[in-house]
Design a protein that fits this description.
By secondary structure, this protein is of the alpha+beta class. Helices cover 48% and strands 17% of the residues.
Length: 265
């Protein structure tokens, strides 16, 4: 992973306008890992992807995260602070082609069903972006489930599986399919970070999801707008090109901007 430059931030922001969060996440990682093809990054389990984004965010804007939430009971605004380390649940390893090409499979048994599955990836989520929740669950299982064995016939699978052999996800009873979706989510806790919050006004307690993709993207967009303003000011004052200005360190850009402000006064 390489650090993001000022030019990278503008490039990511420009490309990502109007794209989905999944596409934005992959764009950010593709810039940090220029030697890895985008389709390879898209095969990362969501938790691994988000751990990489947390690490990159820390390297780009620092480890401290500050945000706000609104109490669902009294609508009070709550400011909270945490660190990247607080919500990083596993060590983050450098990526290469060998580490992300082969999916890891998990086994799970429920009643008479023996199921082998892998964790969802960005590719999987892209496939269900614009469909209903019910249809999305079916598509996700079809993509993530490798095999389903049910050696013992039951009243629930007898008609669709008279021989008691391999099943498809569509043949699973509804309660098994729902339990499987829940189980798959539990195997990738980094993919769904929940923060325990408490309202200082009414003492209501609740859990709220923290989405690193949305948070990181908003920070990149804010940084890009600031950079555009700095480029405009410095280009107008010194007739420098955008590339030359972005190549300056943040400290040096700020020093030139202070000089311009001092002269203007």
């Amino acid at each position: 992973m390489r650090d993001l430059t000022a030019s990278d931030l503008l490039h990511i922001w420009e490309w990502g306008q109007g794209r989905s969060l999944i596409q934005q996440a992959l764009m950010i990682l593709s810039v940090a890992y220029p030697d890895l093809p985008p389709h390879t990054l898209a095969q990362l389990p969501i938790g691994q992807r988000d751990a990489q984004l947390l690490n990159l965010r820390s390297r780009t804007f620092g480890p401290q995260i500050q945000s706000v939430a609104h109490c669902p009971k009294c609508a009070e605004t709550l400011e909270y602070s945490l660190t990247v380390q607080d919500i990083t649940l596993a060590p983050v390893k450098a990526l290469n082609n060998h580490s992300v090409t082969e999916p890891a499979f998990h086994s799970w048994k429920k009643e008479s069903y023996d199921i082998r599955f892998r964790l969802p990836t960005s590719d999987d989520l892209l496939a269900i972006e614009n469909i209903s929740v019910t249809a999305a669950s079916a598509v996700l299982l079809a993509k993530c489930v490798d095999t389903i064995e049910s050696p013992n016939e039951t009243s629930e699978n007898k008609e669709s599986n008279p021989g008691g052999k391999s099943l498809t996800p569509a043949q699973l009873p509804d309660h098994i399919a729902k339990a499987l979706i829940d189980h798959i989510g539990q195997q990738d806790p980094q993919a769904e970070i929940e923060l325990a919050l408490s309202c200082p006004n009414c003492q209501h307690q609740w859990h709220q999801l923290f989405d690193i993709v949305a948070y990181f993207w908003q920070e990149i967009a804010t940084a890009a707008q600031r950079l555009l303003s700095e480029v405009h000011t410095l280009a107008a004052a010194y007739s420098w090109s955008e590339a030359d200005i972005l190549a300056l360190s943040p400290r040096r850009r700020q020093a030139y901007l202070k000089t311009i402000m001092a002269i203007a006064q």
